[in-house]
């Protein structure tokens, strides 16, 4: 049983910013190399799911971890407020077109879990619908794994309440970050305890285990995710395909 209040959002002792950022660069370059083999092999794919509260750094993780990957291999999708057309379909309808094809990596910046998080926090759906959606999500992920050989990595970016406040204030004080400021983020922050309760349920009801990322320091957060992504690609034992001989 995962308890969010027992998780530490700070880096472990012994990690320092400068060497960790240097290590991140090496990890990201290796990810770039292996992504090209994944593309060439064309038999499997990787889906990276990033979930976390506002200002937890989902965009930053995507940018830094996959910095050396070709945009022909890595695609990202951000699932925000559903459009009227999306609301007229089942909740997974808008997600399926964005899953990775064989030879690709897809990064979900927010994901299909939004529909058992924000909708649940605001009580736009009842608990029976929540239960049904959890079953659908687990079945959906099984489908991707079993039918399309998609490896799924799910990261919860664990940010403290205090650190989120600091980062949201930066968006109001730093001209370079004005564009990120959204007054609605502060309204959602008022529901922090409700979000933590729902996130905790997500972490414990998923068939594929979540990886909890200490996210108070962006340099460690990015390093942590990059290390897990690289380890996963290495475990896939990717190989370039042999030369095809003409008949």
Structure description:
The protein has one domain (17-235): 3-Layer(aba) Sandwich (Rossmann fold). A five-stranded parallel β-sheet has the order 2-3-1-4-5, sandwiched between helices. It is 47% helix and 13% strand. The radius of gyration is 19 Å and the shape is globular. It is α/β, with parallel strands linked by helices and 247 residues long. Helix 1 (17-41) runs parallel beside helix 9 and helix 2 crosses helix 9 (218-235).
The CATH homologous superfamily is called P-loop containing nucleotide triphosphate hydrolases
**Contiguous runs where pLDDT drops below 50 for at least 5 residues:** none
The major beta sheet can be summarized as: 5 strands, parallel
Order of helices and strands: HEHEHEHHEHHHEH
How many domains? The number is 1
Total of DSSP H or I helical runs spanning 4+ residues: 9
At CATH level 3, the topology is: Rossmann fold
List keywords for this structure.
5-stranded parallel sheet, 47% helix, 247 residues, alpha/beta, Rossmann fold, 5 strands
Brief characterization of the structure:
The chain has 247 residues and is of the alpha/beta class. The chain has a single domain (17-235), classed as Rossmann fold (3-Layer(aba) Sandwich). It contains 9 helices and 5 strands; from the N terminus they run αβαβαβααβαααβα.
């Amino acid at each position: 049983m995962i308890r969010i209040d027992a998780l530490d959002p700070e880096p472990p002792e012994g990690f320092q910013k400068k060497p960790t950022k240097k290590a991140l660069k090496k990890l990201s370059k290796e990810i770039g190399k292996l992504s090209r083999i994944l593309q060439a092999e064309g038999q499997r794919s990787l889906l990276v799911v990033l979930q976390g509260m506002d200002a937890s750094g989902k965009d930053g993780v995507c940018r830094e971890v996959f910095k050396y990957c070709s945009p022909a291999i890595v695609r990202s999708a951000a699932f925000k407020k559903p459009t009227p057309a999306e609301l007229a379909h089942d909740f997974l309808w808008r997600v399926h077109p964005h899953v990775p094809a064989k030879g690709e990596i897809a990064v979900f910046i927010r994901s299909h879990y939004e529909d058992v998080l924000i909708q649940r926090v605001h009580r736009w759906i009842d608990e029976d619908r929540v239960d049904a959606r959890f079953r659908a999500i687990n079945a959906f992920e099984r489908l991707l794994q079993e039918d399309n050989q998609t490896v799924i990595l799910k990261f919860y970016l664990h940010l403290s309440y205090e650190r989120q406040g600091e980062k949201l204030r930066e968006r109001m004080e730093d001209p370079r970050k004005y564009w990120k400021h959204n007054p609605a983020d502060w309204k959602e922050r008022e529901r922090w305890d409700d979000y933590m309760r729902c996130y905790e349920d997500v972490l414990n009801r998923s068939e594929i285990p979540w990886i909890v990322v200490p996210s108070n320091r962006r340099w460690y957060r990015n390093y942590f995710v990059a290390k897990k992504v690289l380890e996963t690609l290495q475990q896939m034992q990717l190989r370039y395909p042999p030369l095809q001989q003409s008949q």
